[in-house]
Amino acid sequence: MKTKKNVIITGGAKGVGAACARLFLKESYNVVILDVDHFSGKNLESELGETCFFIACDVSEEKEVKEAFKKAIGHFGEISVLINNAGIQVYGNLLDTSEDVWDHVMNVNLKSHYLCAKESVSSMLKLGGGVIINVSSVQAFISQQNVAAYTTSKSALLGLTRSIAVDYGPNIRCVAICPGSIDTPMFRDAISKSKDPEKVFRECEQMHLMERIAKPEEVAELIGFAASDKASFITGQALRIDGGLGISIPGSKQ
């Protein structure tokens, strides 16, 4: 009988993380979900069954990350794939972003990726290799207004991705996935703070050449491919799945 591989998904209780959990389960992985949302995490664990293990964890805290990885490895074994998916989006330019907010965004969107990658590399080396996927954003390449902390954190992930690929190749691959707008609870929560959420939603759709935003499952499919042996010659790269966002000159349609 073939030994199952094990994947850890941060921010795995909802959105893209939950879509990844379902996809990797279908690919016969044991799935570990790390998330601060205990309610959604336990519900997903119950839905997916005994090959899914939820651990409540603030992945921006080193002590909690170390304890979570210890539990995960004790439960299923060493880690083959890490999906660094945890993230938050906070709006604000430099002048109206407080130091506390800046630090919070950096801790969740960047520091957590470092902490989880560090634990994963130690585990993967025992297996002889593995794959780390960092979920970045199209805003690592282009940026809207009033997202100073967010776009900085997502851009920094490209450097972390390259660094891991260089330091731990050929046995460990690292790839950044850079989505455009995705219809997730985080996205819905972000636009709910505007005066007209439906208008903002339509504007987001029209920003993409595909004239819609992505489903979480579409992003999960690319993550699944990047983590698979089919992508075994891809490392250190940033793969955009953005519906054509940012490649068209405004007003160029005839």
Automatic annotation (TrEMBL):
Gene Ontology MF terms: glucose 1-dehydrogenase [NAD(P)+] activity
Statement: the UniProt record of this protein carries the keyword Cytoplasm: no
CDD domains named among the record's database cross-references: SDR_c
EC numbers on record: 1.1.1.47
Gene3D superfamilies for this protein: NAD(P)-binding Rossmann-like Domain
Alphabetical list of Pfam families matching this protein: adh_short_C2 (PF13561)
Keywords: Oxidoreductase
InterPro entries the record matches: NAD(P)-bd_dom_sf (IPR036291), Sc_DH/Rdtase_CS (IPR020904), SDR_fam (IPR002347)
Lineage: Bacteria, Pseudomonadati, Bacteroidota, Flavobacteriia, Flavobacteriales
Enzyme type, top EC level: oxidoreductase
Family: Belongs to the short-chain dehydrogenases/reductases (SDR) family.
Protein name: Glucose 1-dehydrogenase
